[in-house]
Protein: Hyaluronidase
Organism: Atractosteus spatula
Amino acid sequence: MSAVCPTPLICWRAFMFFIWHVACHQFKQAKIPLLQHKPFIVVWNAPTESCRLKFKVDLDLSIFDIVANLNETLSGSNVTIFYHTHLGYYPFYSDDGTPINGGLPQNQSLAKHLSKARSDIDKFIPFKDFKGLGVIDWENWRPQWVRNWGSKDIYRNKSKELIRRLHPQWSDRKVEKEAKEEFEMAGLNFMNTTLLLAENRRPNGIWGFYLYPDCYNYGYKQHPQKYTGECPNIEHVRNDHLMWLWKESTALYPSIYLDYELKSTSNTVKFVHYRVKEAMRIASIARTDHMLPVYVYSRPFYAHTFHVLSEIDLVHTIGESAALGAAGVVLWGSSEYARSRKNCLTVKKYIDGPLGHYVINVTSAAKLCSKALCKKNGKCVRKSLDNGAFLHLNPRYFKIRSSSSSQGPRFFVSGYLSNEDIFVMKQKFTCQCYHGWIGIYCEMPESSILFVDMMTNVTSHATFQHTAPFSYILTCLWALILISSSFALKPAKLPLIGRKPFIAAWNAPFDLCTTKYNISVNLEMFHISGSPRASRRGQNVTIFYANRLGHYPFYTEEGLPVNGGLPQNCSLETHLQKADKDIKFYIPSENFSGLAIIDWEYWRPQWLRNWQKKDIYRRKSRDLISKGYINVTSQQIEYLAQARFERSAMAFMKRTIQLGIQTRPHGLWGYYLYPDCHNYNLLDNNYTGSCPVLESLRNDELFWLWNSSTALFPSIAIKKSHADSVSNLYFAQFRVLESLRIASMTSMDYDLPTFVYTRLGYRDEALSFLSTKDLIHTIGESAALGAAGFVIWGDVNLTSSRHNCSKVKSFLSHRLGQYITNVTRAAEVCSEFLCQSNGRCVRKDWQAPYYLHLSPESYRIEHSEEEGFVVTGWHSEQELSELQEKFACHCYEGYDGDKCDALKQMDKPDSSITRPSASWCLVLVMFVYILNFVF
């Protein structure tokens, strides 16, 4: 018996590893909040103590959950901000060009600076257990040479003068190169060592530099009508070069100060959105264990004015920051706030009115969402960062009331969180778990995974002595993944056409046979069709090749760049402008409700998947970094090249498909060949077809793509060299299974529909058409596993001669047409009988050799030139009984029950489950643990 037992154990451990790294980690974990159970805080950072002491105006900030220092000063136990005059000997030039502390970082003694900085930290933060925000505000120069523009150009000029004095014979180019290197190294050392000193002196503080990261999206000043808010791509790259700073920081402090010209405009939220989004991006790459907390600096007043922010701009700043996942907002103010009694009363009126009410609204909503969705072990973040949802209390169920008591807070929240509120939260937000917690709802301690591994290790040493073959482990892993999906099966999306559960789509240029050779064929066995020719428009199946949608960047086979060659070399905005015109040209109807497929195959958006011929995209990306930067190591080049390529590729693919969905929202949009599971090793001995685990993990990394798509279009094209073999079956089977797995992962309330792409012929011999057995291995297998349909693709070679056209017509009029009619009609029969036409039939056992085929004893399929294929006959009771034994229902959205005969209760919040919860994992662990000893 012991020789058999290792297999489930090893599979189980592989499965738990998979669950831990995939299902339970949609986001990198967040740092535990500064204040317990307060996922989003608002911090007061203004010197307003004079309002109380001098003018007897009391600003009671604590009632709004605003964290204030003692006497509301700029330094204290909760927040300390170090300006350039308060921390060491910071070198800079005054406004009149006078050098202070040497002027340049390379002109000042670092040791002398650190010695004074140590004393300054002890002076301004006397508490050694300081656990607040430590903010260093050094704004005179930036550590990157290229970013010292405008008034900061003095630091470049003075650095060059310094080198010129030392080397008067050098060329200007060599002087600038040396000056740049010296300045950047000195700037890095000043900032990094100061940060390290602060963290060593007050290790519990949350340390970072004010205004870092910045993304310089100030284009609203020059082009307010065309302003998108996006950070320039070059600024993303420059921020990536500051990895040395992010790795030493323990928090980020970006700024979203608003100019008055932005007041209550649509550009405000664009400006804030992308600045906070960039900070969240940097926060996610700085560390390996958790995201850095982001505290966004804002002002209660518009910059350089004493005009309070409008109520909508409170939403645009504080609300947007909370919804994107920031840890809090710091409200900074100058001494102007307390300069006079009038000013103090203005501040008090604003706090007691719109500001205070909004702060208590958004912080309370963040706490309630954390409790309702994330078990208080995580915070709520928008499912889609661009969806415009906010963490606000529902005014139908909540009120912010004032207290008549002189004791306690002046305002309090009354009300309750309704089922409706929870349901809406689950629709629009997801959980980002705190460090130490995992699961879709942050319901499981991370230590549970260690427990799982410990238990499986103990039992393996105690009872088992044999090892299972690795190929079997992969197969078993797949079985467990598929079993896991049954714990929280999402409904299927309603069919594209009527109640047809499995549709056939035609995407080949057979129209050329009609125009060139007068050879036509009846295509009525296909529910929708479209020719891939560029001259055809307004079709139900529209495929966008690389040259038909925007300015897609790629390299030709000769290595020549088209549209810049690399996604980071091509303007995304210019591409989208042309893509918008292309979509409207090829799909002129605004009511388009067919299939829209983007076929971009030159490069893949993941760096590691650009192998063989696609390696040119990695080489060219490295070249681009090497030419743009001096004195970078090969490791730095690789990191920067990969980061820049992947970010640009993601933006190209994501923004393009979003544009398509926005322009033609009723169509089903996706990318051809996505997902792919790269199971092309058919020549291996004992080929199982299973997708390599690494490729499944890489597919999970493309969550941004699946979440942006409305359909999936994997390919199951097979080769003639494996014709009629079981390898073709395994190849297609696991590719469809992988797509169905991905289809259930998105934030949609239903599985994305999967339409598999196949061909008339084999990949290596286009005019050798698929055998009946291989039609079953591909189309039949897809139907039985639960795909929404298939697309048959062909190119112009099929129609290049009268002979070829005649062969295609014969295949369509006999073998292919016969089989398509068979499987699509059988899928309808099963849906009608088992699922009341409210769902599609899916195999109960995914490996079983059962197919949705009409019984030849009960049905006849006949063909005529005029009518196409006609089905006659009726099923027997025995045949229906066999269907019930072999197939189960996957209900469409809105329906429930084993037979899909009940309406689903859409208002129940707990019914919206997007992926298997981690909690049931422990139950299975114990179950396996017990079985180990039983056997």
About this structure: The longest strand covers residues 859-864. The first helix runs from residue 6 to 23. The radius of gyration is 32 Å. Confidence is low (pLDDT under 50) at residues 1-25, 450-488, 906-935.
